[in-house]
Design a protein that fits this description.
This protein is α+β, with helices and mostly antiparallel strands. A hairpin with a 2-residue loop joins strand 37 (755-759) and strand 38.
Length: 850
């Protein structure tokens, strides 16, 4: 008999647990199906679940139907318990996604669908509550295809149109179908297994409609997995039973497991197979099964046992941090280990201790989870805690590449670590690599350093928040053959990370939500204004009947309690739903940093300083002086100044050739731009001195967003900022006699064919569609860059590299701003001199003269 581990997922209140009860009733597992509203369902075993009528903890039940044995894992549907759901996904063979026929695809449904795609889990879709559905099957299928995947296929009737839809899911099946061959059950099973087709069924869990046909579908199209003969298992859950025994829930992914087998020097005391709150024991369990093990005290969520590898970091993370308020008679240090037991069960709680404030903090997803945590602590530990309103969880990253150096050398200890720290795109997380030669540092020491990088949550220097979105590479290190111990590299590694952060340009990040806001059309203006006031971005509104839908992205902290506000100003007709959208730049970083008032040098647990040794004793060295004492050379090569050779300086482009290039780009000018050099009688006829003209090529948008005056103006009107820059450059060019070329990037302007024109005494160019500004500038300097008087003004690293390649000078936007300011100051001084020599006559003097 084939067996499969199937998870059942849904948005809260979609009818998931009711469907699970109906499936177990129809297979004979239950004599009577329980009901959520009656509090007697098999899978909602905890009192809190029965009181609230929602699934909070994942639970297991096993049943057999025809030729398949199903291990069903029920998961929480509320968004606050998404972490519990995500942990369960890593052990699933298949998933059942439950959709409410009344509400259709909801916010959390989309999140679950993305997770199923991320973990590559084949999915069956069951649309329940069809006895109360507002839409027809055809309308619901259309919605599923639009919202989830175009390969969502109705399996209710297998007629010709059904097989046509199946054939559309794969080119191979399409060729087979068009060739007159029939599509077999194996073909359909393979499509489902490969996530190329998503079977959809309809019914009602409460009235048992469509349940048996859905079970037949599972039996017909589920393919059994193939497992290794060598033992392997994945830990997906840690719990404690009523007697306080620690229970490790695993899926066996290879070989078999027996009582008294050893795992990491611990012996299995008992193997349990749960069904709801009850369980049976067995002596041995084979691959593909779900079980619970006792006797293991060092396991953790996501751990791989045997040949199984560790799980990837979870995608869904809490975005709020709360302070736990304890009763006056409870000591925080005594309570902390108890709360750590809850963190074992749910690692996303991130129970942390603030030694400075002597307070305990916890990370939670929302208000419902907050109330559940308070109830759990009261039930498990008989302590009534309170939780404050909480703050969002900030993170920090860096915006430039730096080298962090950590040295730890008290007497009879030695370690030095050099880390290259580079920024990564948003959402990349932390990436650890090594690029250190084994001739410099032994491989075992390198592994130890990488382990130390991974084992700790490294904090930033702006607010003391965790760092993210950067690549940390071990570039160099040194050990002592006699004095180095493992703990020495731990200290050096921590200090190297911290020292690098102190040197880097840090940026504060905050969590964002993707939102979907539905409001009556007459309230659309109010809604758009609200989102803008909350520092959000929106897409173009869509209208369906008398309802307008706005989607976008905004900071989590600004959207708190906005759902209540929407319901209020729309009279209950509007609603907003959220999806976690990761982290992005903080909208009010200066204010947040000021409120945190974090001093990184005073944080002794995360010190950036190093320890060196001299005269038989260790001494501390401040982070900004470490480079003067470090024993290894820096791993970042200093940029050498560009010194053109004699041959490069003698290269000269012909005037006519240069004029042809400029005319091709900007058209003919009204005056002769390049005049023949007048012959000087003092020189011999065979030696002609040619004066090189000075050209300044300016990357327009790079300068606009680098100069404060223009950046503020661009927020109001980008066109005004462009015009202001052109006026500034006209004055600059006229005074310095430089030929100014101003380039604007019009890469994303649809249908743009490019434009080049003369604006007073400067030349202005707009690139054409799909032509980047740096490509245009590179092409220009490649043609006129033989003249060593050409300068390129930009802070863009790629353009600067191109400038170096072609031997022209380059200048950052900030440096150019200083030069322009100096020129304007000279212009002002010149005008004062002119005015003093030619004073304007007073009004009385004018009348007398008349």
């Amino acid at each position: 008999m084939k067996q499969s581990v199937i998870g059942i997922l849904a948005h809260v209140d979609a009818g998931k647990t009711t469907l699970a009860e109906a499936m177990m009733y129809c297979t004979g597992k239950l004599r009577k199906a329980g009901r959520v509203d009656h509090g007697n369902t098999l899978l909602d075993t905890h009192d809190l679940e029965r009181e609230r009528g929602i699934t909070i903890f994942s639970s297991q039940a096993s049943f057999t139907y025809k030729g398949i044995n199903i291990n069903l894992l029920d998961t929480p549907g509320h968004v606050d318990f998404s972490a519990e759901t995500e942990r369960t996904l890593q052990v699933l063979d298949y998933a059942i996604l439950v959709i409410s026929g009344i509400d259709g695809v909801q916010a959390h449904t989309r999140t679950l669908w993305k997770l199923l795609a991320l973990y590559n889990i084949p999915t069956f879709i069951f649309v329940t509550k069809m006895d109360f559905a507002r839409k027809s099957r055809e309308e619901i299928i259309t919605e599923l295809q639009n919202e989830l995947s175009e390969n969502c296929i109705d399996f209710s009737e297998m007629d010709d149109s059904f097989f046509e839809n199946i054939a559309m899911c794969s080119e191979n099946i399409m060729e087979k179908y068009l060739g007159g061959e029939s599509i077999s059950d194996d073909d359909i099973s393979n499509l489902i297994k490969s996530r190329l087709a998503y079977p959809c069924c309809f019914g009602s869990g409460l009235k048992f409609e469509g349940i048996e046909s859905f079970l037949d579908l599972l039996n017909d199209y589920i393919t059994p997995s193939v497992f290794h003969n060598t033992f392997g298992a994945k830990v997906f859950k840690i719990t404690h039973d009523e007697q306080g025994k620690r229970i490790t829930h695993v899926k066996v992914t290879g070989g078999s497991l027996k009582v008294r087998d050893s795992i990491s020097d611990e012996k299995i005391a008992q193997i349990r197979i749960y069904s709801g709150a009850k369980f049976i024991t067995c002596d041995e369990i084979s691959a593909g099964s779900i079980c619970a093990l006792t006797g293991l005290n060092n396991t953790f969520n996501g751990q791989g046992l045997g040949i199984e590898s560790k799980s990837v970091a979870p995608v869904l993370e809490p975005v709020m941090n709360y302070r736990i308020i304890l009763p006056p008679d409870i000591d925080a240090q005594t309570m902390l280990p108890k709360l750590k037991l809850l963190e074992e069960e749910d690692p996303q709680l991130h129970i942390s201790w603030n030694s400075h404030l002597q307070e305990i903090y916890v990370s939670l997803m929302g208000e419902v989870q907050t109330e559940i945590l308070k109830s759990l602590v009261a039930e498990r530990f008989s302590v009534n805690i309170d939780i404050d309103k909480g703050t969002v969880l900030y993170k920090e990253t860096i915006t430039n590449t730096v080298e962090g150096v950590g040295h730890y050398e008290p007497l009879r200890h030695y370690a030095e670590v050099h880390l290259l720290m580079e920024p990564l795109p948003t959402g990349s997380g932390l990436v650890f690599k090594t690029n250190c030669s084994e001739d410099i540092l032994d491989k075992n020491w390198q592994r130890l350093i990488i382990g130390h990088l991974k084992e700790k949550q490294h904090l930033g220097i702006l607010t003391g928040s965790p760092i993210t979105d950067m690549k940390i590479t071990l570039a160099a290190g040194r050990a002592h053959i006699k004095h180095t111990e493992g703990g020495d590299f731990r200290q050096a590694t921590y200090r190297a990370v911290r020292q690098g952060l102190m040197k880097a340009q840090s940026e504060l990040l905050e969590p964002y939500y993707n939102f979907r806001l539905e409001v009556p059309c007459e309230q659309l203006g109010r809604a758009i204004n609200d989102i803008r006031m909350k520092f959000g971005s929106i897409s173009n509104p869509e209208t369906y009947g008398d309802i307008s839908i706005i989607t976008g992205k905004a900071p989590v902290i600004t959207l708190n309690d906005y759902a209540t506000e929407v319901a209020s100003y729309t009279g209950g007709r509007g609603r907003i739903s959220f999806e976690v959208a990761g982290y992005d730049k903080c909208h009010n970083s200066d204010k947040v940093i000021e409120e945190f008032n974090y001093n990184p040098e005073a944080d002794l647990e995360n010190t950036p300083d190093s320890v060196f040794c001299a005269h038989g004793g260790g001494f501390g060295v401040k982070w900004d002086k470490v480079h003067e004492y470090m024993h290894l050379e820096s791993c970042i090569e200093k940029e050498k100044p560009f010194t053109p050779s004699v041959n490069q300086r003698n290269l000269h482009i012909d005037d006519k050739e240069l004029e042809a290039i400029m005319e091709r780009e900007f058209g003919k000018v009204k005056y002769e731009l390049y005049r023949p050099t007048a012959k000087n009688e003092n020189f011999k006829d065979d030696y002609k001195f040619v004066e090189r003209k000075q050209y300044v090529i300016v990357d327009g948008y790079n300068v606009i967003f680098a100069w404060n005056e223009l950046k503020e103006l661009a927020k109001v009107s980008l066109e005004s900022a462009r015009e202001r820059l052109m006026e500034i450059l006209c004055n600059y060019g006229a005074f310095t006699k430089n030929n100014v070329v101003l380039v604007f990037d019009a890469y994303k302007v649809e249908g743009n064919t490019g434009e080049a024109f003369q604006f007073h005494n400067i030349r202005v160019a707009y690139t054409k569609e799909r032509e980047l500004g740096d490509v245009y500038i590179e092409k220009l300097i490649s043609e006129i860059g033989k003249n060593d008087k050409v300068r390129v003004v930009t802070s863009d690293g790629l353009i600067q590299l191109s400038a170096v390649r072609y031997g022209v000078l380059r200048m950052s936007a900030a440096e150019f701003e200083e030069e322009v300011d100096r020129v304007h100051a000279k212009i002002a001084d010149f005008l004062k001199v002119v005015e003093s020599k030619n004073p304007k006559p007073k009004l009385g003097e004018k009348l007398e003269n008349n």
